Amino acid sequence: MHYVEMMRARRVLIGYGIALLAIVAVTGLIVLAGSAHVHGDVNMGSAPTILSSSIVAGSIFGALIVATLMIPGLNAEAATTPSIWTRPTPRDTIAWRYVAIDFATIVVAFLGTIACVYIVLAILGLLKYAVFDPKTVTATLLGLGGIVMWYGVVSVVVARLPGRGPLLAGLSWAVFLIQAALTVAPFPSVIHEIIVALNYLNPFAYLGSVNTANAHDPLVVQLPAAGRAVGAWLIGIAATIASVRLWSTREA
Question: Helix or strand or coil: residue 164?
């Protein structure tokens, strides 16, 4: 049962970890070649400021890649569903174990990405310019909320489409990006309003800059970062619950 998902999580984390290590290794080689290290003192007036909230925001996209790879977990069990449902364990319990493994994998990838960024900064001699930003907490909650929302919305779509999980999870990147871009297209008023309404189910519309209230950003849900974080979490949790229910009630 869920041990299959644990094996999938292991494979994904190993592959993602190798990619992060490769980034660190390449950075180290560049520095050893003497072309990228920041030498000497930088005047305070021109010293770069690297905000922790920006690091978190960038790391979210690495975690989204891992989330995309983990989403098909339940869907991939379509061929073995008849066997799984003969177990004495309730179906919902089986499904929630998969979800818990997926979320744990995503969090590990997120933390690993942040660690990789700081290691790269240290290699480049820029770590001393990294400062903690009070908006980091909001950025973390918003980023993780966007991931949960992405996971839940896509999981609902694939719950009753056995065997289509990997394909639809991959296509979700294009769908969400195009959907967000269409909000600024010159469509008639009625169509534009429909697109804007659908954008409230688009994780990219919530994962805007933490440093803006988005009053002038048509691609982002018109709420401050804290409001978008709450909305993303609520939609993500509701969608995940719905996907678990759809999967556990699907006919074999």
Answer: coil
